[in-house]
Amino acid sequence: MPKALFFSIPGHGHVTPSLPVVQELVRRGHEITYFVTEEYRTSVESAGATFHAYSDIGNDYFTSQGLSGSVPQRVAQAMITTSEQVLPQLLAHARDSQPDYVMFDSMCSWGRLTAQILKLPTVASLALAPLTTPPPATMLKLLPLVLPLILRDLDKGIDANRRANRLTKAYDLPPLNFVGILNNLGDISIHYTSREYQPFADTVHDSVRFVGWTPYEAPASAPFSYDRVQGRRLIYVSLGTLNNENAAFFRACIDAFAGGEDFVMMTTGKRLDPESFGALPENVAIYSWVPQVDILKRAALFISHGGLNSIHDSLYFGVPLLVVPQQAEQTLNAMRVVELEAGLMLKRGQVTSQAIRASAARLLTEPKFKANAQQMGETFRATGGVTRAADEIEHLLHMR
Protein backbone atom coordinates (compact mmCIF):
# COMPACT_ATOMS: atom_id res chain seq x y z
CA MET A 1 0.00 0.00 0.00
CA PRO A 2 1.82 3.18 -1.18
CA LYS A 3 2.26 6.02 1.31
CA ALA A 4 2.55 9.66 0.32
CA LEU A 5 2.96 13.07 1.89
CA PHE A 6 1.18 15.94 0.15
CA PHE A 7 2.45 19.47 0.85
CA SER A 8 0.17 22.33 -0.20
CA ILE A 9 -0.10 26.05 0.37
CA PRO A 10 -3.17 27.54 2.11
CA GLY A 11 -5.26 28.73 -0.83
CA HIS A 12 -8.55 27.34 -2.11
CA GLY A 13 -7.26 27.68 -5.65
CA HIS A 14 -4.39 25.35 -4.81
CA VAL A 15 -6.03 22.84 -2.48
CA THR A 16 -9.33 22.34 -4.33
CA PRO A 17 -8.05 20.95 -7.66
CA SER A 18 -5.87 18.40 -5.89
CA LEU A 19 -8.65 16.83 -3.81
CA PRO A 20 -10.34 14.72 -6.53
CA VAL A 21 -6.96 13.15 -7.33
CA VAL A 22 -6.28 12.53 -3.64
CA GLN A 23 -9.73 10.96 -3.34
CA GLU A 24 -9.02 8.61 -6.27
CA LEU A 25 -5.61 7.61 -4.89
CA VAL A 26 -7.15 6.86 -1.49
CA ARG A 27 -9.82 4.77 -3.23
CA ARG A 28 -6.99 2.74 -4.78
CA GLY A 29 -5.44 2.11 -1.38
CA HIS A 30 -2.84 4.88 -1.11
CA GLU A 31 -2.27 6.35 2.35
CA ILE A 32 -1.93 10.13 1.98
CA THR A 33 -1.07 12.62 4.69
CA TYR A 34 -2.00 16.09 3.52
CA PHE A 35 -0.16 19.12 4.99
CA VAL A 36 -2.04 22.42 4.91
CA THR A 37 -3.71 24.77 7.41
CA GLU A 38 -6.67 24.18 9.71
CA GLU A 39 -9.18 25.88 7.41
CA TYR A 40 -8.95 22.93 5.01
CA ARG A 41 -9.29 20.10 7.52
CA THR A 42 -12.88 19.17 6.57
CA SER A 43 -12.17 19.15 2.83
CA VAL A 44 -9.00 17.10 3.19
CA GLU A 45 -10.61 14.56 5.48
CA SER A 46 -13.66 14.33 3.19
CA ALA A 47 -11.27 13.32 0.39
CA GLY A 48 -10.06 10.46 2.58
CA ALA A 49 -6.59 11.78 3.40
CA THR A 50 -5.08 12.21 6.85
CA PHE A 51 -5.00 15.91 7.69
CA HIS A 52 -1.84 17.46 9.17
CA ALA A 53 -1.71 21.16 10.09
CA TYR A 54 1.47 23.18 9.60
CA SER A 55 2.70 24.55 12.89
CA ASP A 56 4.26 27.73 11.43
CA ILE A 57 1.85 28.61 8.59
CA GLY A 58 -1.58 30.15 9.20
CA ASN A 59 -4.79 30.35 7.21
CA ASP A 60 -3.99 34.02 6.46
CA TYR A 61 -0.55 33.22 5.02
CA PHE A 62 -1.18 35.22 1.82
CA THR A 63 -3.48 37.98 3.04
CA SER A 64 -1.40 38.85 6.11
CA GLN A 65 1.68 39.41 3.92
CA GLY A 66 -0.14 41.11 1.03
CA LEU A 67 0.85 38.34 -1.38
CA SER A 68 -0.80 37.83 -4.76
CA GLY A 69 -0.07 37.16 -8.41
CA SER A 70 0.63 40.88 -8.84
CA VAL A 71 3.74 40.77 -6.62
CA PRO A 72 5.65 37.61 -7.68
CA GLN A 73 9.00 38.76 -6.28
CA ARG A 74 7.48 39.11 -2.81
CA VAL A 75 5.74 35.74 -3.17
CA ALA A 76 9.02 34.07 -4.08
CA GLN A 77 10.74 35.63 -1.07
CA ALA A 78 7.92 34.44 1.23
CA MET A 79 7.97 30.91 -0.19
CA ILE A 80 11.71 30.38 0.22
CA THR A 81 11.76 32.04 3.66
CA THR A 82 9.00 29.69 4.77
CA SER A 83 10.97 26.78 3.32
CA GLU A 84 13.93 27.71 5.51
CA GLN A 85 11.66 27.76 8.57
CA VAL A 86 9.66 24.56 8.07
CA LEU A 87 12.10 22.19 6.37
CA PRO A 88 13.68 20.74 9.55
CA GLN A 89 10.33 19.64 11.03
CA LEU A 90 8.99 18.40 7.69
CA LEU A 91 12.12 16.34 7.13
CA ALA A 92 11.79 14.86 10.62
CA HIS A 93 8.17 13.91 9.94
CA ALA A 94 9.05 12.41 6.56
CA ARG A 95 11.89 10.34 8.01
CA ASP A 96 9.55 9.00 10.70
CA SER A 97 6.68 8.18 8.32
CA GLN A 98 8.87 6.83 5.48
CA PRO A 99 6.62 7.70 2.52
CA ASP A 100 7.00 6.07 -0.88
CA TYR A 101 6.55 9.37 -2.71
CA VAL A 102 5.86 13.07 -2.17
CA MET A 103 3.19 15.25 -3.79
CA PHE A 104 3.35 19.03 -3.61
CA ASP A 105 1.64 22.10 -5.02
CA SER A 106 3.83 23.65 -7.70
CA MET A 107 4.26 26.81 -5.60
CA CYS A 108 5.20 24.81 -2.50
CA SER A 109 8.99 24.87 -2.62
CA TRP A 110 9.31 23.25 0.81
CA GLY A 111 7.47 20.19 -0.52
CA ARG A 112 9.81 19.77 -3.45
CA LEU A 113 12.89 20.35 -1.28
CA THR A 114 11.75 17.74 1.26
CA ALA A 115 11.44 15.15 -1.50
CA GLN A 116 14.77 16.09 -3.08
CA ILE A 117 16.66 15.87 0.19
CA LEU A 118 15.20 12.42 0.90
CA LYS A 119 15.55 11.31 -2.76
CA LEU A 120 11.89 10.36 -3.07
CA PRO A 121 9.76 10.25 -6.25
CA THR A 122 7.88 13.52 -6.77
CA VAL A 123 4.47 14.48 -8.14
CA ALA A 124 3.75 18.17 -8.66
CA SER A 125 0.16 19.45 -8.52
CA LEU A 126 -0.21 22.31 -11.00
CA ALA A 127 -3.01 24.58 -9.82
CA LEU A 128 -1.45 27.36 -11.92
CA ALA A 129 -0.34 27.06 -15.53
CA PRO A 130 3.28 25.98 -16.03
CA LEU A 131 5.62 28.45 -17.68
CA THR A 132 5.71 28.25 -21.47
CA THR A 133 7.66 29.95 -24.25
CA PRO A 134 5.42 32.17 -26.38
CA PRO A 135 6.55 33.19 -29.88
CA PRO A 136 8.35 36.55 -30.08
CA ALA A 137 5.30 38.45 -31.34
CA THR A 138 3.24 37.24 -28.38
CA MET A 139 6.06 38.03 -25.96
CA LEU A 140 6.14 41.62 -27.20
CA LYS A 141 2.38 41.85 -26.66
CA LEU A 142 2.73 40.54 -23.10
CA LEU A 143 5.68 42.73 -22.12
CA PRO A 144 3.59 45.69 -20.87
CA LEU A 145 1.90 43.30 -18.44
CA VAL A 146 4.84 41.09 -17.49
CA LEU A 147 7.72 43.60 -17.27
CA PRO A 148 6.28 45.62 -14.36
CA LEU A 149 5.83 42.35 -12.43
CA ILE A 150 9.48 41.47 -12.97
CA LEU A 151 10.77 44.91 -11.97
CA ARG A 152 8.45 45.43 -8.96
CA ASP A 153 10.09 44.55 -5.62
CA LEU A 154 13.26 43.50 -7.41
CA ASP A 155 15.16 43.54 -4.11
CA LYS A 156 12.76 40.88 -2.79
CA GLY A 157 13.52 38.67 -5.79
CA ILE A 158 17.26 39.10 -5.27
CA ASP A 159 16.85 38.14 -1.62
CA ALA A 160 14.76 35.12 -2.64
CA ASN A 161 17.54 33.92 -4.95
CA ARG A 162 20.15 34.45 -2.23
CA ARG A 163 18.13 32.46 0.29
CA ALA A 164 17.44 29.70 -2.23
CA ASN A 165 21.14 29.36 -3.07
CA ARG A 166 22.05 29.20 0.61
CA LEU A 167 19.39 26.60 1.30
CA THR A 168 20.21 24.31 -1.62
CA LYS A 169 23.95 24.46 -0.80
CA ALA A 170 23.22 23.50 2.80
CA TYR A 171 21.48 20.32 1.62
CA ASP A 172 23.78 19.68 -1.38
CA LEU A 173 20.97 20.16 -3.92
CA PRO A 174 20.95 21.66 -7.43
CA PRO A 175 20.44 25.44 -7.47
CA LEU A 176 16.86 26.72 -7.25
CA ASN A 177 16.31 29.98 -9.14
CA PHE A 178 13.49 32.50 -8.93
CA VAL A 179 11.39 30.71 -11.55
CA GLY A 180 11.92 27.38 -9.82
CA ILE A 181 10.75 28.75 -6.48
CA LEU A 182 7.32 29.60 -7.92
CA ASN A 183 7.06 26.88 -10.55
CA ASN A 184 8.21 23.64 -8.93
CA LEU A 185 7.84 20.60 -11.18
CA GLY A 186 8.15 16.95 -10.22
CA ASP A 187 9.16 13.69 -11.84
CA ILE A 188 5.65 14.01 -13.18
CA SER A 189 3.51 17.16 -12.96
CA ILE A 190 -0.27 16.81 -12.91
CA HIS A 191 -1.85 19.74 -14.78
CA TYR A 192 -5.61 20.11 -14.28
CA THR A 193 -6.49 21.25 -17.78
CA SER A 194 -6.48 20.08 -21.36
CA ARG A 195 -3.79 20.54 -23.95
CA GLU A 196 -6.36 22.50 -25.97
CA TYR A 197 -6.79 25.06 -23.19
CA GLN A 198 -3.10 25.45 -22.32
CA PRO A 199 -1.45 28.27 -24.31
CA PHE A 200 1.64 27.11 -26.25
CA ALA A 201 1.14 23.58 -24.95
CA ASP A 202 3.92 22.21 -27.13
CA THR A 203 6.49 24.17 -25.08
CA VAL A 204 5.57 22.85 -21.61
CA HIS A 205 8.06 20.71 -19.69
CA ASP A 206 8.18 16.99 -20.52
CA SER A 207 7.07 16.12 -16.98
CA VAL A 208 3.63 17.74 -17.47
CA ARG A 209 0.62 15.43 -17.80
CA PHE A 210 -2.64 17.03 -18.96
CA VAL A 211 -5.47 15.34 -17.06
CA GLY A 212 -8.37 17.71 -17.64
CA TRP A 213 -10.60 19.23 -15.00
CA THR A 214 -12.67 17.52 -12.32
CA PRO A 215 -15.04 19.88 -10.47
CA TYR A 216 -14.84 19.44 -6.70
CA GLU A 217 -17.99 19.94 -4.69
CA ALA A 218 -16.88 20.94 -1.21
CA PRO A 219 -18.88 19.64 1.74
CA ALA A 220 -21.77 22.04 2.32
CA SER A 221 -21.73 23.95 5.59
CA ALA A 222 -25.47 24.71 5.28
CA PRO A 223 -28.40 23.95 2.94
CA PHE A 224 -28.59 26.19 -0.12
CA SER A 225 -31.88 27.14 -1.79
CA TYR A 226 -32.66 28.14 -5.37
CA ASP A 227 -36.31 28.96 -4.60
CA ARG A 228 -35.90 32.65 -5.41
CA VAL A 229 -34.65 31.95 -8.93
CA GLN A 230 -38.18 30.89 -9.93
CA GLY A 231 -37.18 29.56 -13.34
CA ARG A 232 -35.36 32.72 -14.42
CA ARG A 233 -32.05 32.69 -16.27
CA LEU A 234 -29.25 32.65 -13.67
CA ILE A 235 -26.18 34.91 -13.64
CA TYR A 236 -23.47 34.10 -11.11
CA VAL A 237 -20.98 36.70 -9.82
CA SER A 238 -17.84 36.01 -7.74
CA LEU A 239 -14.36 37.44 -7.17
CA GLY A 240 -13.02 34.24 -5.61
CA THR A 241 -11.53 33.84 -2.15
CA LEU A 242 -8.53 36.20 -2.00
CA ASN A 243 -8.69 39.60 -3.75
CA ASN A 244 -12.46 39.90 -3.33
CA GLU A 245 -13.03 43.10 -1.31
CA ASN A 246 -13.99 45.23 -4.31
CA ALA A 247 -17.35 46.57 -3.10
CA ALA A 248 -17.58 48.98 -6.05
CA PHE A 249 -17.52 46.03 -8.43
CA PHE A 250 -20.42 44.31 -6.67
CA ARG A 251 -22.40 47.56 -6.60
CA ALA A 252 -21.83 47.99 -10.33
CA CYS A 253 -23.19 44.46 -10.89
CA ILE A 254 -26.25 45.24 -8.75
CA ASP A 255 -26.93 48.38 -10.80
CA ALA A 256 -26.32 46.54 -14.08
CA PHE A 257 -29.00 43.91 -13.50
CA ALA A 258 -31.45 45.57 -11.07
CA GLY A 259 -35.04 44.97 -12.13
CA GLY A 260 -34.06 42.84 -15.11
CA GLU A 261 -35.47 39.48 -16.18
CA ASP A 262 -32.43 37.51 -15.00
CA PHE A 263 -31.76 36.40 -11.43
CA VAL A 264 -28.31 37.30 -10.12
CA MET A 265 -26.47 35.39 -7.38
CA MET A 266 -23.33 36.98 -5.92
CA THR A 267 -20.83 35.77 -3.37
CA THR A 268 -18.56 38.21 -1.56
CA GLY A 269 -16.39 35.85 0.49
CA LYS A 270 -15.49 36.35 4.13
CA ARG A 271 -14.25 39.94 4.17
CA LEU A 272 -17.28 41.78 2.75
CA ASP A 273 -20.53 41.52 4.68
CA PRO A 274 -23.49 40.94 2.31
CA GLU A 275 -25.59 43.08 4.67
CA SER A 276 -23.36 46.07 3.89
CA PHE A 277 -25.06 46.44 0.50
CA GLY A 278 -28.39 47.32 2.12
CA ALA A 279 -31.73 46.65 0.45
CA LEU A 280 -31.31 44.75 -2.82
CA PRO A 281 -33.45 44.52 -5.95
CA GLU A 282 -35.83 41.54 -5.95
CA ASN A 283 -33.77 39.75 -8.62
CA VAL A 284 -30.41 40.00 -6.79
CA ALA A 285 -29.14 37.88 -3.88
CA ILE A 286 -25.77 38.24 -2.13
CA TYR A 287 -24.14 35.56 0.05
CA SER A 288 -20.80 35.19 1.80
CA TRP A 289 -20.59 31.58 0.54
CA VAL A 290 -22.29 29.60 -2.22
CA PRO A 291 -21.79 26.09 -3.71
CA GLN A 292 -20.03 27.31 -6.86
CA VAL A 293 -20.02 24.02 -8.75
CA ASP A 294 -23.72 23.43 -8.12
CA ILE A 295 -24.58 26.98 -9.23
CA LEU A 296 -22.57 26.66 -12.45
CA LYS A 297 -24.56 23.56 -13.36
CA ARG A 298 -27.54 25.94 -13.61
CA ALA A 299 -25.97 29.26 -14.66
CA ALA A 300 -26.12 30.95 -18.07
CA LEU A 301 -23.22 33.36 -17.36
CA PHE A 302 -20.36 33.62 -14.86
CA ILE A 303 -18.94 37.05 -14.03
CA SER A 304 -15.60 36.13 -12.47
CA HIS A 305 -12.22 37.42 -11.31
CA GLY A 306 -10.56 34.89 -13.61
CA GLY A 307 -8.90 32.51 -11.18
CA LEU A 308 -7.92 29.37 -13.09
CA ASN A 309 -10.15 27.08 -11.01
CA SER A 310 -13.16 29.30 -11.59
CA ILE A 311 -12.49 29.43 -15.31
CA HIS A 312 -12.17 25.65 -15.42
CA ASP A 313 -15.38 25.17 -13.43
CA SER A 314 -17.24 27.49 -15.78
CA LEU A 315 -15.97 25.98 -19.02
CA TYR A 316 -16.50 22.44 -17.73
CA PHE A 317 -20.23 23.19 -17.59
CA GLY A 318 -20.22 25.18 -20.84
CA VAL A 319 -20.87 28.54 -19.17
CA PRO A 320 -19.38 31.61 -20.92
CA LEU A 321 -17.43 34.10 -18.81
CA LEU A 322 -17.18 37.83 -18.28
CA VAL A 323 -13.76 38.07 -16.64
CA VAL A 324 -12.86 41.07 -14.46
CA PRO A 325 -9.26 40.39 -13.34
CA GLN A 326 -8.22 41.57 -9.88
CA GLN A 327 -4.50 40.82 -10.31
CA ALA A 328 -1.98 40.38 -13.12
CA GLU A 329 -2.02 36.59 -13.25
CA GLN A 330 -5.80 36.67 -13.74
CA THR A 331 -5.37 39.06 -16.66
CA LEU A 332 -3.36 36.36 -18.45
CA ASN A 333 -6.16 33.88 -17.73
CA ALA A 334 -8.73 36.33 -19.07
CA MET A 335 -6.73 36.86 -22.23
CA ARG A 336 -6.86 33.11 -22.87
CA VAL A 337 -10.64 33.02 -22.39
CA VAL A 338 -11.02 35.87 -24.87
CA GLU A 339 -8.64 34.17 -27.32
CA LEU A 340 -10.79 31.02 -27.18
CA GLU A 341 -13.91 33.17 -27.72
CA ALA A 342 -15.47 31.60 -24.65
CA GLY A 343 -15.91 34.96 -22.93
CA LEU A 344 -15.04 38.63 -22.67
CA MET A 345 -12.81 40.69 -20.38
CA LEU A 346 -13.32 44.00 -18.61
CA LYS A 347 -10.26 45.56 -17.02
CA ARG A 348 -10.79 47.11 -13.60
CA GLY A 349 -10.77 50.63 -15.03
CA GLN A 350 -13.48 49.66 -17.52
CA VAL A 351 -15.96 48.37 -14.94
CA THR A 352 -19.20 50.32 -14.96
CA SER A 353 -22.77 49.10 -14.70
CA GLN A 354 -23.25 49.99 -18.38
CA ALA A 355 -20.16 48.03 -19.48
CA ILE A 356 -21.19 44.99 -17.41
CA ARG A 357 -24.72 45.08 -18.80
CA ALA A 358 -23.54 45.45 -22.41
CA SER A 359 -20.94 42.66 -22.09
CA ALA A 360 -23.44 40.34 -20.44
CA ALA A 361 -25.94 40.99 -23.22
CA ARG A 362 -23.39 39.92 -25.83
CA LEU A 363 -22.40 36.80 -23.94
CA LEU A 364 -26.02 35.75 -23.45
CA THR A 365 -27.19 36.40 -27.01
CA GLU A 366 -24.24 35.60 -29.30
CA PRO A 367 -24.20 31.78 -29.67
CA LYS A 368 -20.45 31.46 -30.28
CA PHE A 369 -19.56 32.16 -26.65
CA LYS A 370 -21.60 29.30 -25.23
CA ALA A 371 -20.62 26.97 -28.08
CA ASN A 372 -16.91 27.60 -27.50
CA ALA A 373 -17.28 27.21 -23.73
CA GLN A 374 -19.02 23.88 -24.27
CA GLN A 375 -16.34 22.74 -26.70
CA MET A 376 -13.59 23.54 -24.19
CA GLY A 377 -15.52 21.69 -21.48
CA GLU A 378 -15.58 18.63 -23.72
CA THR A 379 -11.77 18.71 -23.94
CA PHE A 380 -11.58 18.71 -20.13
CA ARG A 381 -13.78 15.61 -19.91
CA ALA A 382 -11.95 13.80 -22.72
CA THR A 383 -8.49 14.09 -21.15
CA GLY A 384 -8.82 11.35 -18.55
CA GLY A 385 -9.45 13.20 -15.29
CA VAL A 386 -8.56 11.67 -11.95
CA THR A 387 -8.26 8.19 -13.44
CA ARG A 388 -5.51 9.38 -15.79
CA ALA A 389 -3.80 11.28 -12.96
CA ALA A 390 -3.78 8.27 -10.62
CA ASP A 391 -2.62 5.98 -13.44
CA GLU A 392 0.32 8.30 -14.16
CA ILE A 393 1.30 8.37 -10.48
CA GLU A 394 1.12 4.59 -10.14
CA HIS A 395 3.16 4.21 -13.34
CA LEU A 396 5.84 6.46 -11.85
CA LEU A 397 5.96 4.32 -8.70
CA HIS A 398 6.11 1.12 -10.75
CA MET A 399 9.04 2.46 -12.82
CA ARG A 400 10.93 3.24 -9.57
Q: Helix coverage percent of residues? A: 40-55%
Strand neighbour order, sheet with most strands: 3-2-1-4-5-6-7
Structure classification? alpha/beta
Number of strands: 13
Order of helices and strands: EHHEHEHEHEHHHEEEHEEHEHEHEHHH
**What is the assigned CATH homologous superfamily of the largest domain?**
Glycogen Phosphorylase B
Question: Total number of helical segments?
Answer: 15
Let me know the largest β-sheet: 7 strands, parallel
Description:
It is a single chain. The protein is of the alpha/beta class. The chain folds into two domains: 3-212 and 383-399, Glycogen Phosphorylase B (Rossmann fold, 3-Layer(aba) Sandwich), CATH 3.40.50; 227-380, Glycogen Phosphorylase B (Rossmann fold). Helix content is 44%, strand content 14%. It has helices at residues 12-15, 19-27, 41-46, 72-97, 109-118, 136-151, 154-170, 178-182, 247-257, 292-296, 308-316, 328-339, 353-365, 367-382, 385-399, and strands spanning 3-7, 31-36, 50-53, 101-105, 122-126, 188-191, 208-210, 234-238, 263-267, 284-287, 301-304, 321-323, 343-345. A seven-stranded parallel sheet has the order 3-2-1-4-5-6-7, with helices on both faces. A six-stranded parallel sheet has the order 10-9-8-11-12-13, sandwiched between helices. Strand 8, helix 9 and strand 9 (263-267) form a beta-alpha-beta unit. Helix 4 runs parallel beside helix 5, helix 4 runs parallel beside helix 7 (154-170) and helix 11 packs across helix 14 (367-382). The radius of gyration is 21 Å and the shape is globular. The mean pLDDT is 94.
